[in-house]
Amino acid sequence: MNYRHHFHAGNFADVMKHALLARLVRALQKKEKGFLYLDTHAGRGGYDLAAAASGDTMERKPEWPEGIGRLAGRNDLPEVLSEYAALARRYDAQQGNSSATPRYYPGSPWFVRELVRAQDRLAIWERQPAECAALREAFQFSPRTLVHEGDGYGALRALLPPPERRALVLIDPPFESQHEFADIVRALDEGLRRLPGGVFAVWYPLTERARIDDFFAELRMLRPPPTLALELMIAGPAAPMRMKGCGLVVINPPWQFEQEAEPMLAWLAEALAQAPGGGGRVEWVVPE
Q1: Is 172 a residue of the active site?
Q2: Which residues pair with 30 in a beta bridge?
Q3: Residue 248 near residue 168 (C-beta atoms within 8 A)
Q4: pTM value?
Q5: Is 68 within 8 Å of 10 (Cβ atoms)?
Q6: Are strands 245-251 and 279-286 parallel, antiparallel or unpaired?
Q7: Which residues pair with 232 in a beta bridge?
Q8: Do the beta carbons of residue 208 and residue 246 sit within 8 Å?
Q9: Higher model confidence: residue 52 or residue 195?
């Protein structure tokens, strides 16, 4: 997978991830006390979808038409998706697009910044210098946001536990390294020791089922609190595409979060399907 996210911005995986992220933020805000949002691999903050067709050396088919493009203009979105879709449209308009066809799409930090309250804080990390520079520019007028250039896995050691004693941590790496899952498990081990009650969300691609099952097994060896896996498949096993879906593991999910997520995933599986055999899936990796 290409690290520079504008090649993938607004695709089905972004739709799923950001819709669930918005609901996680809202779930944490049911309590008055503030929390820290920590994003370990934040990217550049926002993306021009017109650049999605330009690869490093050749043109490529953009992915957003099969993601946010399919939601644009629909008036039948379920309530659980309405706020996410409204935020995506707001960013698009703020960047100057007046067309009904999406042109600009925000990254995870922007969605969260638009949702947080005065008592909530953001700490967003990005290791790529050019991406981090763009991130700093995008968030220069956000006083409750710390932008840090560096290895986001180290952020859990640096910033946890926060003064608020509450945190939502998003781990969304590029999966360029063959050791990415091992790095994630080590980071979660560190994070859970520092903040056992924190909410940790990990995005992952669905390419090989065996790798994900091994990842779940390694998670269980950490003896974590209740852990939920939410998966969206836009194609069945026989489909030719390499990435047939994606998932989000949530450690310490908010109360009844799975009841909100399950119908959302079912709706998205139908709306974003690219081949037969897909669907939504909710599984307790570690039961409540």
Answers
A1: yes
A2: none
A3: no
A4: 0.95
A5: yes
A6: unpaired
A7: 246, 280
A8: no
A9: 195
State how beta strands 199-206 and 245-251 pair. antiparallel
Give the single-character DSSP code of 253: P
Type of residue found at 155:
A
Question: Tokens 């926002």 label which residue?
Answer: 46
| Span 18-50, pLDDT tens digits | 999 999 999 999 999 999 999 999 998 899 998
Q: What is the pLDDT of residues 48-98, one digit of tens each?
A: 998 866 655 556 788 999 999 999 989 999 999 999 999 999 999 999 999
Q: Quick one: pLDDT at residue 2?
A: 39
The CB density around residue 3, as the number of other CB atoms within 10 Å, is 15
pLDDT digits (tens, 9 = 90+) for 146-171: 999 999 999 999 999 999 999 999 99
Residues 194, 197, 202, 208, CA torsion sign: positive
Q: Say if CB 111 and CB 145 are below 8 A apart.
A: no
- 263-278 pLDDT per residue, tens: 999 999 999 999 999 9
Q: What is the pLDDT of residue 58?
A: 55
Q: Which 3 state secondary structure label does DSSP give 224?
A: coil
**CA 171/CA 40 separation, integer angstroms:** 5
The CATH architecture assigned to 20-48+117-286 reads: 3-Layer(aba) Sandwich (3.40)
**DSSP run (H or E) holding 158:** helix 155-159
Contact 13, 146 (CB under 8 A): no
Tell me the one-letter amino acid at 48. D
Q: Which of 76, 151, 172, 213 is catalytic?
A: 172
C-alpha–C-alpha distance, residues 221 and 217, integer Å? 6
